[in-house]
Amino acid sequence: xxxxxxxxxxxxxxxxxxxxxxxxxxxxxxxxxLFLIGILxxxxxxxxxxxxxxxxxxxxxxxxxxxxxxRYLARLALFAGVLFFFPTLGLGIFILIAAFHFGETDLSALxxxxxxxxxxxxxxxxxxxxxxxxxxxxxxKPYLALAGSGRMELSAAMGWxxxxxxxxxxxxxxxxxxAMAVHCIRHPVEWNKAGRQWALFYLxxxxxxxxxxxxxxxTFYFISWHSVLSLDCIVGYLCRSGAFSRRxxxxxxxxxxxxxxxxxxxxxxxxxxxxxxxxxxxxxxxGLAVLTAPHMEVMHHMYHRLxxxxxxxxxxxxxx
Length: 320
What we know:
Largest sheet: none
Low-confidence stretches: 311-320
Mean pLDDT: 84
Number of helices: 12
Helix content: over 70%
Order of helices and strands: HHHHHHHHHHHH
């Protein structure tokens, strides 16, 4: 992906921040509307091509379709069960999975084979989530209350957020900076491949996510940034090689997006999803969490293949 795509997305984020600072936050209705529209148009669809991506990953003549679908659905069901019966554990696992997935997308050109590369990717993703979540502790409390259902550990977490959330956010961001610095010092070629671009975008992104309200910040990062970058990379990965036509990719995304929407809607209706805007957003978050578990593995294999097959820092999707 060309760097201009990220520049355009960053301009969108900076413009959003300027509007926020000048006129204040959007109303709850507008925040929820943008969030849901983004989920429908980009959020869920960016993970709906996993079947085609895995077929491209394996490059097998006889792809084990039933086996793939069975394992994919089993991971969905397993993680949904963990979130339902052990919400604290489930949320912790989801944060780690999502952090690595976000980091791997943002730092898609970074060599993630060694320990320092994996650490830089993980801490980058954790810092992004830390800014969105820890930087908005008061706004996060209603969601934790929904997750906790009276559980003492999550009630304690809300008190901890109030006392230490800001400093925990600063610590994670500094840790991400140190991890990237160590990795680029140990592997100087990584500075030109990924470190310089990270340095260009990280601080503006951090300011945008910190200053925007919780839901607006998540919408900008997950919808405008992560989903667009992922979709561009996925379409290129599937189509530039000639493995699949764009029509087939679009059709696949449409079918699996519809299935995911229906699943989230069915679960949400059963759980009084529409009781309030907070519960609606929470059920959508949980739906995304369940979908992330198998999606992250498929995307990890894709990024690995892209890194290993792109010899020049100047070219290819993975350099964007």
